[in-house]
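Exercise 7 asks you to align residues with tokens for two separate proteins.
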Amino acid sequence: MTYELYYWDGIQGRGEFVRLSLEEAGADYVDVTRGPQGMRAMMKIMESRTAPHIPFAPPFLRDGDLIISHVANILMYLAPKLGLAPADEGLRAVTHGLQLTITDLVAEVHDTHHPIATSQYFEDQRQEAKARSAEFIDNRMPKFLGYFERVLQQNPEGPEHIVGKSLTYVDLSLFQVVEGLHYAFPRGMHGFATKYPALAALHSSVRKRPRIADYVKSERRLAFSEDGIFRHYPELDKDAA
């Protein structure tokens, strides 16, 4: 059966974390809003007054009659089916916890350019965004990246993967995080590979995986932009040395 992924058209956004797992697994899926049904199909589900279990916001995934929302929740559901989750039930819970931590990080990245309100344009909160970004780059980003570096280094199965000895969806999500941070804060990420060698090695190894490499080069992989989660505003990046 074909999975149906629903997300805002024209941007990577949070939907990209789900796409990476689907692409790595070679799963049969359709990005619904990019097809002929367009955004109407997604809004019809979200605005339904009769359907059960309607999602609050995208991304969400339809698998038959089941609709599942929230990135970490979608990945927890999909990963065992795609071969991207540990076999051990306890380690699956650990993996889900790591993805939830990525959810927290992504929310903080979003708030660097929208610190006051999502309903206001970046230009309406420029000064607040500059202060929030400085705090994120100096304190919050190193805290998150340092945490994931330690988890990799302390994995009993070795630092090649975040959990266990095989690729999981969290490895793919960390690849996306590193890609996005390099785009949004190129000066702030200066020295990344030296500070976080295990995380840098993971990012490199995921990029070289055949299906991910093909996806990254394909038209299906949209470019980062100033409409997504990871946005590059030079004034929000770390000041040049």
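Second protein for Exercise 7:
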Amino acid sequence: MPPSSRKIIHVDMDAFYASVEQRDDPSLRGKPVVVAWRGARSVVCAASYEARRFGVRSAMPAVRAERLCPQAIFVPPDFSRYKAVSRQVREIFARHTGLIEPLSLDEAYLDVTATRTALPSATATAEAIRAAIREETRLTASAGVAPNKFLAKIASDWRKPDGLFVIRPHQVEAFLAPLPVGRLPGVGKVMERRLAELGIATVGELRTHPAQELEQRFGRWGRRLHELSLGIDEHPVQPDRPTLQVSAEDTFEHDLALDELAPHIHRLAEKTWAGYQRETQGPHGRVARTVVLKLKTSDFQTLTRSLTPPLLPVSAAELAAIACDLRERVDRPADTRYRLVGVGLAGFVDAESFAAQSDLFGMPTSVRGS
């Protein structure tokens, strides 16, 4: 299907984990709910809209969330329950199309260029999906409809919560022009500052710079930026892609030394571990054998160090410990500063076959959730 003629929907459940908790426990409704374990190294998995009014956001350290909202009710995450609801939502998607690309338990891309229903448009399909989610799960979802994936994702956030926004092909360039460049995927605070140095604050201003100029300054990413400024995204919806890596990363406001990264590694390990639980749930879960530490230096050089330990980590704390130890394999001058750190789990294999191989060769195993 030519990219220009695609019809893509991005569906994003509203405050998903927190909304499930409020749905299942009436005493939590209308109250600031934070889905997280308490503790100095815990991070927020989700926050209800009542908690968000105090500035609480997902991926925030739990101790900071508690400071921002002392009256918040902390609820430990229950990923098996969230996964069950996610399957319900996925079944609703499948009534309309087989081209479904899940991004997480609470969001997915759908290609509805051709559908399994007689609905007249992508907009009508999105409305039908949202209505079914509300009726069958008693939860709400926001949706964006657009000619490609990155625009659909922007659109789904436009009228949150419980909203629908449509970007039609002839509206793309005008819609994008006034947006801050930070709304483009992959543009974080550091890149925003670098673009600001060139006098670029909006997507429209970015569009005026030739692709070749941006490529000379930022490499291949510069050409990609120019394409995004024009609303070009040719990536198709890819259903049922196997997970290659679960990871979380963060770009710092100020560059840090290697020995200053430990608190950030622990925080990101919590987030990565929460995502990893979704892969290990159920009898046919998958396990990751390799721990990955990703670093980006102040001059934008990317480094990765990895380890496949004899025993699989069984907690976020163990994951963090291994990732911290991987810093010893970074052979850079002591005064090197780092602008980004990431923690990941890779080398996914089927849990049952991994356990069988370990038994065969007498290897120790420590597989959770399988």
